């Protein structure tokens, strides 16, 4: 059970009831509202992690204007919660446009329960900064930017090889992250991939520690050293090519939200 607070806003009572049931399995607090005008009061305490917001309110309204209006109002707040929009299948283009305005992600009606949960959990992770904060405390020598790149590369490769070998997505200890960060800072992407693949293949532990990542000669120079930004750009490019430009699959592989992926693609001038 995650110690998170989720607000769900939808004018359909049946949808609210269903979402409360699904989200309550994973989150400690789920608050439902049938009208978005309640949002200013609900957000007053600044303890909300994610807002799950319908894009249309009222019978016959399909423009998405209300959803975008309230998305903008939420994003204007200091330290705002993440926003995940709920949209109908025909409003995909509108939902994609909302990502450019700061939404973390969107789900499409009718949704898949597992996909819905994974989307909200990803938004909760982004809001809380749990992974980055934990790693930052254990690795003070790393800058925030380095921390972000290390986390993206390691988590993405763990997910890639866990999927390839039919294993659960493993956790990783701070010591192991520190060990892998040394490889990343050396600029050797090939060695990083080989080291993580070997650890995932050979270990049956739900959490990998530094002893799971064997290095034959950690002092050897990288065969093709690159900077952190070059490594991140190269890796994202490879994932985009592998997933044939499907941003949803790319974001899942990279273990980031679609909004974060969109921002990184813009930063590195990547197309799909």
> How many domains is the backbone divided into?
2
Q: Which residues sit in consecutive blocks of at least 5 with pLDDT less than 50?
A: none
Strand percentage = 5-15%
| Total number of strands | 7
Helix residue percentage? 40-55%
The rounded Rg comes to 20 Å
Distance between the termini: 37 Å
Secondary structure blueprint with pairings:
Layout: E1 2-9, H1 13-23, E2 27-33, H2 39-42, E3 50-54, H3 65-75, E4 82-88, H4 92-100, E5 105-109, H5 113-128, H6 130-138, H7 144-164, E6 171-172, H8 174-186, H9 189-202, E7 207-208, H10 228-242, H11 247-254, H12 258-267
Parallel strand pairs: 1-2, 1-3, 3-4, 4-5, 6-7
Structure summarized in a few sentences:
The chain is of the alpha/beta class and 272 residues long.
Mind explaining what this structure looks like?
This protein is of the alpha/beta class and 272 residues long. It folds into two domains: 2-128, Rossmann fold (3-Layer(aba) Sandwich), CATH 3.40.50.2300; 131-267, no CATH class. Helix content is 52%, strand content 13%. The chain has twelve helices and seven strands. The protein has helices at residues 13-23, 39-42, 65-75, 92-100, 113-128, 130-138, 144-164, 174-186, 189-202, 228-242, 247-254, 258-267; strands spanning 2-9, 27-33, 50-54, 82-88, 105-109, 171-172, 207-208. It has a five-stranded parallel sheet, with helices on both faces. A two-stranded parallel ribbon has the order 6-7. Helix 7 (144-164) packs parallel to helix 10 (228-242). The longest helix is centred in the middle third of the chain and has 21 residues, at 144-164. The chain is elongated, with a radius of gyration of 20 Å.
């Amino acid at each position: 059970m995650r110690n998170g607070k989720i607000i769900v806003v939808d004018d359909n009572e049946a949808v609210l009831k269903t979402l409360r049931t699904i989200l309550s399995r994973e989150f400690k607090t789920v608050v439902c509202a049938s009208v978005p005008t309640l949002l200013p009061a609900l957000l007053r305490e600044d303890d909300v992690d994610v807002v799950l917001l319908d894009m249309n309110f009222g019978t016959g309204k399909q423009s998405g204007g209300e959803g975008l209006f309230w998305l903008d109002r939420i994003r204007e707040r200091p330290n705002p919660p993440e926003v995940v929009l709920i949209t109908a299948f025909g409003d995909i283009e509108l939902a994609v446009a909302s990502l450019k305005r700061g939404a973390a992600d969107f789900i499409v009606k009718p949704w898949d329960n597992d996909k819905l949960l994974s989307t909200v959990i990803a938004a909760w992770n982004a809001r809380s900064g749990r992974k980055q904060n934990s790693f930052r405390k254990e690795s003070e020598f790393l800058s925030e930017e380095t921390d972000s790149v290390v986390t993206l590369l390691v988590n993405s490769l763990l997910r890639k090889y866990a999927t390839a070998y039919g294993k659960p997505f493993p956790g990783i200890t701070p010591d192991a992250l520190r060990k892998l960060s040394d490889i990343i800072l050396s600029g050797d992407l090939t060695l990083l991939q080989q080291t993580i693949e070997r650890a995932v293949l050979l270990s049956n532990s739900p959490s990998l520690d530094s002893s799971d990542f064997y290095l034959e000669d950690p002092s050897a120079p990288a065969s093709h050293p690159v900077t952190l930004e070059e490594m991140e750009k190269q890796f994202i490019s490879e994932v985009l090519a592998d997933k044939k430009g499907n941003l949803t699959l790319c974001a899942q592989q990279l273990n980031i939200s679609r909004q974060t992926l969109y921002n990184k693609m813009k930063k590195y001038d990547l197309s799909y």
